[in-house]
Amino acid sequence: MFDQRSESMARESAQPTAVPAAADQGITALTSLLENLEEVAQSETSPRYSADSAHQNRLVQVRLGVASGLFLALRVKHAPTAAHSLRVALACSSWSLRLGLDSSQRDELEVAALLHDIGKIGVPDALLSKPGRLSKEEMAIMNRHRAHSREILSACSASSELLRIVWYAPAWFDGRRPEFDCKGEDLPLGARILSIVDAFDAMTTDHLYRRALSRERAMAELFEHAGTQFDPALVREFHGFFQANHNRLAESVTRRWLHDLMRQPKDDFWRLNHPADQDDVASVHRLFHEQLLDNMHDSVVFLDADLTIRRWNRAIEFLTGIPSTRAENQPWDPAILQVRDENFKLVTAGNCPVIQAIRSGTMASCRLYISDAKQEKVSIDAHITPVVDSEGQVHGATLLLQDASSRISLEERVQTLHERVTQDGLTRVANRAELDRVHKEWVKLHLEKGSPYSMIICDLDHFKKINDTFGHQAGDDALVTFASILKKFCRATDLVARYGGEEFVVLCPDCDNATATVRAEAIREALGARPHPTLDGKCVTASFGVTELQPGDTPETMLRRADRALLQAKDDGRNAVVQLGAGMSEGPLPRSRRRGWLAWLHHDPGQLLLSRKVITAVPLNLAVEKLRGFISDNKAEIIDISESRVTLGIDGKSDLLHRRSTDHPTAFLIELELREIIWDQPAVGESVSVRTVVHVTIRPKRHRDRRRRDSTERARRLLLGLKSYLMAQDYDHLGK
Asked: Whose CA is closest to 293, among 79, 40, 47?
């Protein structure tokens, strides 16, 4: 995981490139310098989930003034890198506000964050867009971008501190990287802040070669390397910042960038104009095309003449498990789908029928094998049609993939069932009964497969006030609009349901925490930007809670965790997305070799079922907070607390292993002993790296339950669930 994070930071952390304008207050915003970059910005993600790029361009333009030309250069070179840089800069700015940095420090940090990866302009395109892991030689070439950044910024920056922030951001806190001449608190504060935000954003962003980590898992990684790679005190501060309402802080940063930074008249001489808007007819045509592509059962890929993927429809998302956000704007490579020919030999770029069809300008059809979302080989019929204009010039190709196997996917079966069930009469989404049925089924199914499954629970903010002010008809219209937006941003295999009143739930099979959180953010932004005629043109907002299925979960614990996230979003001021839970981060525990009644010959009355030491990278106080989530979601009873020991009671009534109505629940006692340890001796100053070790023992609460054959398996599930909440791993596996 650490290697993957380091590589993604090296490749994808790219920050928008603009010359350091912070040190020179005379360099300010150009009125419309980047206003025509919307099309380029949208290339970084699927159009369905793209952010308001015009707004982002405005932020960069105002913050950097004429220096925003460098940002334009980086965005043209590699749009995902530029998008990452802007996110990092905004996060650094809002965090520095919470830390109380003065205005000059914030200025330097903001611009350094925008520019620290400007050197990636000098990295070959093939490395920036490579879908697989980089080799050692390629990593060496990639790492040269730091020297390029230093050279570019040294030529145009008057701020030595800004240059120091950019140069020392990759340095490790413990000084183990010999190319840097300082370590610990001698490193610039801005560099230590930037390194944490840069790593966190890289880990929580989807890449073609690696799925994004959940926010909680990424936070655990930061704690894992606190004291070595990162400043441990700042990691703890960052956790507090992230737990706070960072959305509100980000809004204050936006206002500061757009309003507080003064402009100079000389910048107003420079302007890039908006490209002409498409006429209404063309917009309608595009809408028809989008609807057609997204509702096709066949997989469709559009490629341009440079073999770049321009469209990746929903059907191929379901088939391959690769979302459009990770595929679009990446170079086509048959290795992405592990394409094999009819003889089951791997297809390379040299003999790829797609590439050959584009180069020759002739149609092609063939039988191929690709890897689906479960990494199983699927037989497909591929039809490649070059896109040729009236003059015979090839502009790309359309790739149509049809499932040639006789199987019906899980997603299709669920969708067929969904179409036959009763819907909510007002919003035309699934009703509560269908939600309960499908949720229970999907929890069981995804636990068996070990695949991700996420839930988004949301409700309209201040809905009672809408009804009281504008009437119930206006409230109903708001609910219908909210439901339509939820369906628009969801896949065909997702389930959108009305949970009750103004509360809705979206079930997302084969979808992890990070992806579901991105979708919830897109829904929140779309809803907040939609005016309602029945509300006098006003917009409404909603709050969202997101979680992913964890080992040991039941339908009830998963729903309670999502609801807890929703309540936290409301406590944070509403109109926010909060994600809780680590997800399917760990496989099932190994089963005991003894099975059946013989195993119970080795259990005396009162003997424990499981005893295990686990370790989590977070300090004791944070481990206790995560334990509270486990207690709340599992409705555990706190039987005893003494010093570092906690005894919990679980009634087991909602356990998934009750397959028959005649099954009796098994109650358990869970005894926890928590202690904080120093993981490594501090290399610098007085900082320490601390972790929490938890000794877990699980035993039946009642004497008769020890004879139940499945009690050990239920105890294993409880342990897996507890480890997911704590984001812990087995202590023995670390050789301790």
From this structure: 47
